[in-house]
Amino acid sequence: MLVSKLPDKGTTIFTVMSKMAADYGAINLSQGFPDFQAPEALLERVAFYTAAGYNQYAPMSGVPALKQQIAMKVADLYGRNVNPDTEITVTPGATEALFCAVCATIHPGDEAIIFDPAYDTYEPAVTLNGGITHHIPMGYPDFQIDWQAVRCKINDRTRLIIINSPHNPTGSIWNEADVLALQEIVEGSRISVVSDEVYEHIIFDGQTHQSLHRYAELAKRSFIVSSFGKTYHTTGWRLGYCIAPQEYMLEFQRIHQFVNFSTNTPMQHAVADFLEHCPEFHKELSGFYEQKRNLFCRLIKKSGFRLLPAAGTYFQLLDYSEISKAADTELANRLTMEHKIASIPVSVFYKDPPGQKILRFCFAKSDATLEEAADILNKL
Ligand code: PMP
Ligand code: GLN
To answer: How many A from CA of 121 to the centre of ligand 2?
Structure first.
C-alpha cells in the first residue's frame, strides 16, 4: 500500500480541462498552448539535426552552443554576463528547472513563501522536499504583492521565495518597486529566490520586464528560470533552462543529473541555431501577443464579462459575476460541456480561494479561434 506524499493533490487542472474540452468538442482556451505552428526556420533546423544524427545524449548541463546563445541573449536583454559553462543548465521544460531549484534549496522543515494565485508546480515541489509553504494572497483586482505581509511571514526557517512575473494566471507584472522590496527583505538573510520568468518575452503596452538578471544583488541568490516552449510556440518540446550563480548551479546539477540527466539533443541544437540566426523573433513576441490580447478583448467587449487588466503572458482573466453566481470550477465545467468553450477556474491556484468569480482564458490562438470563442462568450 502506497502512502502518498501529495494526498491532497488530484490531477492538474490543465490536464482535467484539456481532456474535458476534447471529450465535449469544446474550443480549448484552458491549458496554455498556442494553436499555431512554430517558426518554419526552427522546424527546418530540427529536421536537419535529427537527419544529421544528433540523436544521442546531450551533455548533462546542455549543448554548449545553446548555453552560449542563452548567455548572449541575457547579456543583450538584461546586461548581465553569465558564464555559459558554469551558470546555465538546459532542462526538459521550465517545470523540471523549477523542481530542481526548489529541491536544491528546501530541506525538511524549511519554509518557502509563494504568492496566490500560484502556478501549480510550486507548492508540490516544496512539499515533496519536506518543506512548508506559506501562501500570501495577491491584491484584487490588480494582483500586486503586499510586501508588509511578506515581511510578517519571514522567520529564521524561511529559505525560499518563489516569484513569477509576468504572472500566470493573472497576467500581472512586477515593477521596479517590487524588485527593490524583495531585495531589501532578503538582504543579509539565508533566503534564496526562484524567479519564474517563462513569460519574459510576453509583456504589453511598452512595459519593461523586471528580470532579476538586471539586479546583481538579487541575481547572486536566485535561480532564474525560462522556457523556450512559450517563446517559440513549442510547449510540447519540453525545453527550458535555469541560470544561477556557480555555487547554486552545482547543487542544481547534482539533482538534475538524477532527475532527467540531460535534455533533448536535436532540439537544443536547433534552438541554438535559431537564436543565432533569428535573434529578432523573441523581441517581436510581445507585439504579436499584444495584438491577440487586443483582438480578444475587442471581440468580447460587449459581453457580460468584465475584463481584468492583462499586462503580460497569454492569458486574459474574465470576471463573470454579472453572468452567474456559480463557483468558478462549476461554471468552467458547464461552459465546457454545455457551451463548448473551455477555460481555467482561477480558484484552484489558491490555498484559500477568496471567492472571486474569475475564469482564465488563453488567447494564444489563431484569430479565427478567438472569433469563434468570442461568439460563444458574447451569447452567455
Ligand atoms: N511556469 C509558468 C508560470 C508556466 O505558465 C509554465 C507553463 N505554462 C511553466 C512554468 C512550465 O513551463 P514548461 O512548459 O517549459 O515546463
Ligand atoms: N502552464 C500551462 C498553463 O498555465 C500548462 C502547463 C501544463 O499543462 N503543465 O496553462
So the answer is: 10
3-class SS letters over 14-49 = HHHHHHHHHHHCCEECCCCCCCCCCCHHHHHHHHHH
Q: Say how many Å lie between the CA of residue 236 and the centre of ligand 2.
A: 11
Instruction: Look at ligand 2, atom 2, and give the residue with the nearest C-alpha.
Output: 32
Per-residue pLDDT tens over the stretch 301-359 = 999 999 999 999 999 999 999 999 999 999 999 999 999 999 999 999 999 999 999 99
Pocket mutation for ligand 2, best pick of 164, 235, 238, 344 (most atoms within 8 Å of C-beta): 235
Q: Cβ(171) to ligand 1 under 6 A?
A: no
At 360 the three-state DSSP class reads: strand
C-alpha cell at 104: 536544491
Structural domains in the chain? 13-31+285-378 (3.90.1150.10), 54-281 (3.40.640.10)
Prediction pTM value = 0.98
User: DSSP letter at 138?
Assistant: P
191-236 pLDDT per residue, tens:
999 999 999 999 999 999 999 999 999 999 999 999 999 999 999 9
